[in-house]
Amino acid sequence: xxxxxxxxxxxxxxxxxxxxxxxxxxxxxxxxxxxxxxxxxxxxxxxxxxxxxxxxxxxxxxxxxxxxxxxxxxxxxxxxxxxxxxxxxxxxxxxxxxxxxxxxxxxxxxxxxxxxxxxxxxxxxxxxxxxxxxxxxxxxxxxxxxxxxxxxxxxxxxxxxxxxxxxxxxxxxxxxxxxxxxxxxxxxxxxxxxxxxxxxxxxxxxxxxxxxxxxxxxxxxxxxxxxxxxxxxxxxxxxxxxxxxxxxxxxxxxxxxxxxxxxxxxxxxxxxxxxxxxxxxxxxxxxxxxxxxxxxxxxxxxxxxxxxxxxxxxxxxxxx
Length: 320
Ligand code: F6P
Prior knowledge:
By secondary structure, the protein is of the alpha/beta class. It has two domains: 4-139 and 258-303, 3-Layer(aba) Sandwich (Rossmann fold); 141-255, Rossmann fold (3-Layer(aba) Sandwich). The chain contains eleven helices and eleven strands.
């Protein structure tokens, strides 16, 4: 059986990553496997920044947002020469297999390492919920709750001033944060990469809300990277009776103590990753489907089509 494994976090940090690191560490130690923390993702693997973790190293980390071992993005990891240096470092530290916690870019790195003889297991750690092989990614629920709290507060001021608040949320080309938060907050309009964006339609809908439905304020939740929200707010002020205001929630969405849902998800997934590596299995990623923790081949996961959210968009339209 494998004697020593590594754990790293890669890409944007997500609340719950620490709970996953804790689960990997303690589940491995319980099985008689040593664990090395690799700092700053694949970058730290390339630079040889690693150290042995103990049960104590991961005490009191469950409640903390961010990642105690740091994270980074390293596009150069696509180069075989970079990966060869990283593998040399793993060998120096006697690390035989690695748990990679991150998004789909991190999964690609995990697969490439597995193909070079280092078994890796991917865990979905990102607030974006954009990994299609799992119903929920670690961090999504916490970020969603952060967004909801912010929108609820915006509603207070927006309704007092008869304004239209345009709220931009993260998601990296996945509309789940916008869709789920919009649904949770009763937003008047939800714009995501999946719904598409038509400025004229947005302005017409807002006019309809004020003239026909007599709404005196409105919330528009929009995914990032779709349009300039300051400009949209200005256009709303010009074309409707609402005074438009834009709020970009930004990186505040990535911070904070993880929700119970994310802690449990991360804990279950971390344990599953160790079980797979202990059984000499690599090149797989862990997901949650129908509340069951499952694993599938990373290549298969990366090729899966995104599940449709049309039913949720339609539900929103019916209730608004
Ligand atoms: O993938 C997580 C994420 O927060 C995305 O939602 C966002 O587009 C991106 O990372 C922001 O990246 P950075 O922290 O590098 O600005």
